[in-house]
Amino acid sequence: MKDFFESWTGIIQPWLWNLIVVALAIIIGLIVKNIIKTLVSLYEKQNDYSLLRNIIVRIGKSLNFFVALLALNLMVPLMAFEGKYYPFFNHAFKIALIISFSALLISAVKVFDDYIYHTYHLNKPDNLKERKIRTQLQFIRKVVITVIVFITIGAILFSFDNVREIGTELLTGVGVGGIIIGIAAQKSLSNFFAGFQIAFTQPIRIDDVLVVEGEWGNVEDITLTYVVLKVWDQRRLILPINYFIENPFQNWTRVSSDLTGIVYLYMDYSVPVDAVRQELDRLLEENKLWDGRRKAVQVTDAKERTIEIRVLVSAENSSNAFELRCYIREKLIKFINDNYPDSLPVNRLSINNLKERLTNAGKQNTR
Fold first, then answer.
1. Given CA atoms 121, 123, 129, 132 in this order, what sign does their dihedral have?
2. What average pLDDT does range 282-298 have in this prediction?
3. 8-state DSSP, 158
4. Is 0.85 surpassed by the pTM of this model?
5. How many alpha carbons lie under 13 Å from residue 151 in its C-beta half-sphere?
């Protein structure tokens, strides 16, 4: 085969022969691209998740470039270069192949990521297991992609002889250099290891409901260095990841997503608590937000002028619990105001011996 190509290079001009070789590599890439495009067209009308379709869509573009560059690297020895140009082009093609292969690996990681996301979706009332797996997967995915990128950069740099010599020299001083780098990157390393701790001990998970720094919201993203909390009013609270190792915070969905909501009412001593309890039963029976687990009306405190009534209602998640609390608070206040207005908080003024005092005041005025 080699003699065959050498005979052709003796007839055709070197530059034209090189163009033919490059064109063959491009044609191979286009053939792969058309095959992938045809396969995608067979699945594009499907709305449901398909592993094969996801593989084709995710890996297709990267595979197209990888196959073309692989073919080109295999054909480099067949190309007609002068001795001084051959090492340059051979090295350039190898670097391009390394980059395309790393892109192919990253695409494969994303295929696995999509498969897990589809298998463990969050669209269910009790999604504790799904949130656990997604939190670990999200962190592992980012670590793996980061490692692939660093290995790719290292492979490219060490493909240069000068850089390899410098790297060898640096390795001899890795002890002192490691100490210096460790001190300089102490904060970054602290965040990185805090991320590992959070991913596997899981004090927080993706979609957990937290109260942090006085803000209530859902965990939207966990990166290698920070956590994004989506606040109820669509703001984003960004916190360093080691914050959740070093500081206390509330996690409303640590064990399960169901919650017990609390409503406090401050009423006069004359309020009929049994009537309030019956009205709560009626309101909950009519409201789908209540999950049927818990309900209660309790007098939890007695102050100088009012009593404190605590109303407990349960819901399957934090959003429903908040909406249910607002609904119960509004309806109970309306019920008491319409039926027992005297039971609302009032200030009383009591004057003893009023008749006697008025009589004495009248006698004094007649004098």
1. positive
2. 90
3. T
4. no
5. 12
